[in-house]
Structure formats: C-alpha cells, structure tokens
Amino acid sequence: MEYNTEFLRNNIGLVLQKNHIFKGTITENIQYGNNLAGFGDVVEAAKKAYIHKQIMELPKAYESEAQLLSGGQQQRIAIARMFLKNPPIIFLDEPTANLDAIATEQIKKSIDAIKKDRTVIIVSHSISQIIDASNIIVLDKGTIAESGTHDFLFNIKGVYYGIFTAMANSLNIKKIKISQL
User: Which pTM value belongs to this model?
Assistant: First the structure.
C-alpha cells in the first residue's frame, strides 16, 4: 500500500507526552505549525491553547526563549502549533502525563477547544481526558476489551468501570466536602 506522505503531514497533527521545543523564541516555536502564519495568528493560537496570558507575563513575551518554559507551558505551545496547523485529524498521546493538577486542567481546556469540528484520537490513562469522548476504546493486556460512551461503559460494569472507580477512589472523594467544590 502506498501513502502520500505530504498529504498525511498536512492533514494529521500530533501532540506527544514530550514535545520537541526548538531553540528559539516562543513565536518561532508556535509558527512551526504553519510557517506562513503571521504574528496575529500566533497570538490567536496561543489564546486558544490557554498560554497567551502566561506568555505576556514573561519579560520578553513572545520573544522569550521557548526552552525556558515549564513542561505544562511547553505542552500548550505544542497545542498552539496544532491550532495554527489546523489539521482535520489530531493524535494526542498522554497529553497531561507528568503534569500537576493546574497544568492538567489548563491543557484539558486546550484539548476541549481543539476537539471542535475535527477527529481527535487521545491515548490516555487519565479518565478526565476521555470521559466526554464519543467513543472510548478500552484496552486490556493489548486487546480491545470494550468500547462505547462513558455512560455505556460505566453501566456494563466491566474493565472501564473498574478503572473509573479506582480513579474516583484514589481521589478520596469521601474526604472532600461538596461545599468546597
């Protein structure tokens, strides 16, 4: 089978656990998603990726060195690239791995925004990243164990249910007062 590599590169975006941040400015790193994009497009992509405000707080703003950003900020730079590239298909591999709760929440907002009007495939151990997916595929020992929506999978009380309840139990929800939320 033959593939048109250029077509694939133009129509598929990829955000990995650890994305490559190039030596250079934040602007240059976001523009990697679309070399023809102007500065206004870069700013708009950063806003959609929930990183613009933090960039503006840096001494040199968009001209700051991108490699000096935190892991969560670098992840949002990669997501901003995807907004700039605007591919119809995006693969996200563990987009919130090794990030703190605040960075995870911000990236979740970015991912929710990028999902609109495109196909997004997320590989994740984090239920919060996939709970609202139109189709969840649950793997168990390398094979597909179940698939469906969150509600369907929760109600059949199989592998997904076990993972979901373990995640909920790990949060110690019983110790959190509802009024605090």
Answer: 0.79
